[in-house]
Amino acid sequence: MDAYVSRDKTERGASRMGMIVFLASEVFLFGSLFFTYFYLKINTKPWPPEGVALDPKFAAINTGILLFGSLLVWAASRLVRRGRMAAVQAALFTASVLGFVFLGITGWEWRHESFRAWTNAYGSIFFTLTGFHALHVFGGAMLMLALAIRTRRGKYTFATHTGIEVGALYWHYVDFIWILVFTTLFFIR
Amino acid sequence: MKGFFSIGLVRGILGGTAGTGTGAGAVMLIRMAMGLPAWDEGQVWAAGIVAGVAGYLIALGLFNYWARWFVGARDRFEPNMPSRSWTRFLSVSTDHKTIGIQYLATALIFLPVAVALQLIARADLSKIGFSLNPETYTALISDHGIVMLFIVAIPAFAGLMNYFVPLLLGAKDMAFPRLNALSFWLVPAAGILMVTALGAGGFDTGWTIYPPLSVSYQPLGMNLVLIGAYLAGFSSILSAVNILTTVIKLRAPGMGIFRMPIFVWTAVSTTILSLLFTQFVSMALLFVLLERTLNMPFFGTAGGGQPLLYQYMFWFYSHPATYIFALPGLGIISEIIPVFARKPLFGYKAVALSSVGIAIGGTMVFGHHMFAAGIPALLRIPFMITTMLVAVPTGVKVFAWVATAWGGKLRMGSPLLFVLSAIVIFLIGGLTGVIQAVVPVNLYVHDTYWIVAHFHSVLFGGFLFPLMAGIYYWFPKMTGRRMSEGLGRAQWWLMTLGSALLILPMFVLGLDGLRRRTADYSNMDFRPLVIATAAGGFLIFLGLVVLFYNILRSRRKGAPAWDNPWEGRTLEWMTSSPPPYDNFPATPVVTGEPYDYGISSRPYADVTRSNPSKNR
Amino acid sequence: MASRPGIYRNTARMNKRVIPFILLAAVLSAGAVYFLLHIYNIPNAASVERASIDRALKVLISIAAVVFIWVVTALAYVVIFNRQKRGDTGFGAHITGNRKLETVWTVIPLLIVIGVSFYGGFVLRDITPEPPPGVLNVDVTAFRWGWKFYYPDYNVNSLYLELEVNRQVEFHMATLDVVHGFWIQEFGPKMDIVPGMMMHLDVTPDKTGQYLLVCDQLCGAGHTGMTAPVYVVSSGDFQTWVTQHKAPPATTPASTAFSTAGEAAQLGSAVYGSYCASCHGATGQGGAGPRLVGAGNTLAKYNTAQGLQGFISAAMPLNAPGSLSAAEYGELTAFILVQNNWIGSGTTFDPAGLSSVPIK
Prior knowledge:
Radius of gyration of chain A: 19 Å
Largest sheet of chain C: 5 strands, mixed
CATH architecture of chain A: Up-down Bundle
Distance between the termini of chain A: 54 Å
Shape of chain A: elongated
Helix content of chain A: over 70%
Number of helices of chain A: 5
Radius of gyration of chain C: 31 Å
Number of helices of chain C: 9
CATH topology of chain A: Four Helix Bundle (Hemerythrin (Met), subunit A)
Largest interface: B-C, 92 and 91 residues
CATH superfamily of chain A: Cytochrome c oxidase, subunit III, four-helix bundle
Oligomer: heterotrimer
Helix content of chain C: 40-55%
Strand order of the largest sheet of chain C: 3-2-1-5-8
Strand content of chain C: 15-25%
Number of domains of chain C: 3
Shape of chain C: elongated
């Protein structure tokens, strides 16, 4: 029915480069959002508008969560080379759970913001920026989950584990973007 | 009946319908749960369409592999040889050659549709006893523009790049064949959305979709176009990832970057641009959609938004986009001239690097679209200078083409004829581009037919004619048969004369003061020239009819092409026509230069030697 | 390469044939330049700026035409004389490049475009003059689909443009809805009018006559018809026109009716409720129309209360501009000023002295 062909030989050699190229594009995706943020900030007075009060407490907790997740994923990509697959699986699974916890906290915070996406331009870019990031965290958490499952089912060994390395790359990227989002929204404002 | 459902497209359409219903229903339920009236045209349709596209992709089977990958299931046995029936083009295939033809066919189906939309508008403007209301007129020209750019120009070259970049590199396929399939199948969905937008009230914003006009005053059709353009942009980003990775990773052994054919160089330049800058236009379009459906005031001044923000984000992409459309075309010209002049490409390195130069330069010129739009006065001069600097690498290419042909032994086949027209028309576009980059001149010609004439000459010279040249040049490789030379010449005459008639009067109309995008004019002196442009468009349409007849006829009855009908040196000619599933009998090993015509003792590559150590 | 005499034979033959083509290109370019600079005229020029632009256009098109003619002649030569003969299966000369030649055709275009940039900069300076004292100010309001004009120096409202010949005019432009474009072809430059921004354009008409202002940015179904007549008249005729159209001395009776801004604003609040609230919201928070009160309003573009009042009087309410009395417009201005705390409600409100009240 589907004329799918297994071409893993070509794919494995290229998948890391593919991820790097894809992340270059992703940098521009968030670049466009940050551009929007700063363009609005420069041209709209006052910025942030009255009635916008952000509490950095939860975002700070979220930062910690993501950083810890990143650490775990880094550890997983090291441990896999020594073949400690049980530890790798646990680390990946925890990273995935942390991703979902991050999403939960973000959702809770969104509900309690003093403004909505349609209140003003600040609300629009705030929710779009954090929303796009949350979407990436969701993607990353699902990816970590998949990697954990695949590790469990013995798809990776100390010799063949491109998937984990490539996935780790993505997760670090999502983290890095969060640092930028966090700094921009709560410190540069 | 089972055979009918085995066609991917049929399942895709059913899945799309189901998805639309689900998405629309879900939004209505959420709205009711929030205590709002269930029906909101914008939101319900937007969600329905997005879910519909997802359903269509799932039903096509594009995510089957990834779903199995996710749970770590055992790789399913996948048959190695695709069917030879033409219906394989209606189902998902991961073969880059099939996908290339799918892309090309999609573009070639939408091309005459988009031309026809404009011809209707031209007939109205010619005042030949037929008249449209202004909404219809603007909807037609707007749809013409956006379909041409997103569904014709980008996919057509994506098709040629898909088919020929792996072949020119000596690779077996693209780096990510499944991703490749996904990027293709987004395009027909986008195309259908953009054309059906005309039935959903159309949109009268022009292809630039400037807010607040696009936000506050447009019917549902606008949403369809926004989602369609977003999908097309997404497809173009994914395909850029794929092509770039392929070029970086899958070159045949021995192929250093300065042994890559120029078409690959231009493919790299193009894909870098679309990889990075498509994000900006996608985001801008998404903002418009969000403002339309959820009242998020990105651009509305009432909520503190900035209308000019859109223009910046739009032109960040849409200026480089002209190079996205044109660069592969310039690559095709550079491929064809040495073959048909029987002479090495003059200044290979300069031509190769000029593509990169054009790409880099092209990212720094967006401001010239906004000279009259209130960008800070201080920025006008730097943008004027950067715009002009792009003329330098472009000039390098043109001079190199002439020098390549100079003293050669030209074979006047139809690919070369199209290339010659392309050079002349592109030269007009490039030179007028320098003229209108001069700020004071720009303030006069901005938004007149001069601009329309300029970008049509750039796109005819950089896209349309090179595309035709590419089709005539590579058709034998894709099908194993030659196209009719006589019909090719007829088409070349029609399209060359048509282009001259279409473009040149428009420059005069612009200088004489005719605004673009107006449904009417009172100065009857304009009428003869307007009729000339309409006639030019009609000739081009006839040319397309000839092309289609030629393709359909030659596919069955054309003379056999054998492996290397044009006696070219590059890798695609070193395999059979059409190439086998894995492209080459053995992994090619590159040992020479791609355009070294005249030294037969130094072939470009060896495809017979088996090289197990470098077997990728 | 010396061992390949064939190349030299080819080159020698080429040179003789090339001469007529060089002559042809030279004659054609001379002809084109002569035609463009001395015969061709872009129709309907009627301003100082337009004359500069036309000259620049002709010079630039001449340069482009020369480049075009030489390249196309070279191509024509190649196509005519460098064809492969029937039965010939050989190759052209094996020339892969020429560093010197490539440098030349990189550097020369570079010099040309740098020169053109400088030239463009100077022309730009010529067509964007500073407004001299005595410049004629015109406030332009664009909306779907029409134009309104207000002459703040003379307190004149108009639906067409009346301009004085040889007197520089500065247009101050704002839009009520979408992006519009301001263009009078006879005057040359154009300017987009972006929502939330005040755009300025200076021109000096130098020929009397009737012209047409058009919108050049697509703004919807009525775009084509969004035009307004432009009359350029002599100095005397302009003065006559001004006296005939001057609005009756506006708020003299009203200014005595209330002493403080607060009082005026109270009256203005009622006017606001009946004419403005439907679009701008009950408290000026914005709706279909832009926000007028509080953070995020864009009224600062009017600089002073006088500018604001001039705009409101000329363009509001959108469905019937100019339909309220002068006193009512004064009260509305007071209302907006007080609501935004741009004027204390206890201060004296003098409609004639609004130019001294800044809007931040």
